[in-house]
């Protein structure tokens, strides 16, 4: 059974840092992974990383957030630095995974709350 588990959210003061983790299990491989934030009614892309570790970031987080992956652990991280109150939101991980049998699927994590106080 495929599971995608997020962790690392919490409460931090402005200027502080958090590291979010997105860990997949029950898979053959972890392909492209992206972090989104809830942003009201529509999820907005924050950062993404390809299977080849190419990265892409929303303009609002460039230079502050860094996405990385550990393929041996099937885990992707989002290092969030210089956090601002406007970064407060629920963050979701979306992963493209390959399962036994070779099929690929898209999964969402349960979400993790990030709160930045001023």
Q: Major β-sheet, in short? A: 7 strands, mixed
Segments where pLDDT lies below 50 for 5+ residues?
none
What's the total number of strands? 11
Global geometry: elongated
* Termini gap: 41 Å
What fraction, in percent, of the residue positions are helical?
Answer: under 10%
Number of helical runs?
0
Structural category is mainly beta
What is the N-to-C succession of helices and strands? EEEEEEEEEEE
Residue fraction in strands: over 45%
* Radius of gyration over C-alpha positions, nearest whole angstrom: 14 Å
Mean pLDDT: 96
Give an account of the 3D structure.
The chain is an all-beta fold and 118 residues long. The protein contains no helices and 11 strands. Strands 2, 4, 5, 6, 9, 10 and 11 form a 7-stranded mixed sheet that branches. A 4-stranded antiparallel sheet has the order 1-3-8-7, with no helix packed on it. Strand 9 and strand 10 form a beta hairpin. The termini are far apart. The mean pLDDT is 96.
Task: Outline the secondary-structure elements.
Elements: E1 3-7, E2 10-13, E3 18-25, E4 29-37, E5 44-49, E6 55-57, E7 65-70, E8 75-80, E9 89-98, E10 104-108, E11 112-117
Parallel strand pairs: 2-11
Antiparallel strand pairs: 1-3, 3-8, 4-5, 4-9, 5-6, 7-8, 9-10, 9-11
Short description:
The chain is 0% helix and 58% strand. The chain is mainly β and 118 residues long.
Q: Could you list some keywords that capture this structure?
A:
mainly beta, 118 residues, single chain, seven-stranded mixed β-sheet, four-stranded antiparallel β-sheet
């Amino acid at each position: 059974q495929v599971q995608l588990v997020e962790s690392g959210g919490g409460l931090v003061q402005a200027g502080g840092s958090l590291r979010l983790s997105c860990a997949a299990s029950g898979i053959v491989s972890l392909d492209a992974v992206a972090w989104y934030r809830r942003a009201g009614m529509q999820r907005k892309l924050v950062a993404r990383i390809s299977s080849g570790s190419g990265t892409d970031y929303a303009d609002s987080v460039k230079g502050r957030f860094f996405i990385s992956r550990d393929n041996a652990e099937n885990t992707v991280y989002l290092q969030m630095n210089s956090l601002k109150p406007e970064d407060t939101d629920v963050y979701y991980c979306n992963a493209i995974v390959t399962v036994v049998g070779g099929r690929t699927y898209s999964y969402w994590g349960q979400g993790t709350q990030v709160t930045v106080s001023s």
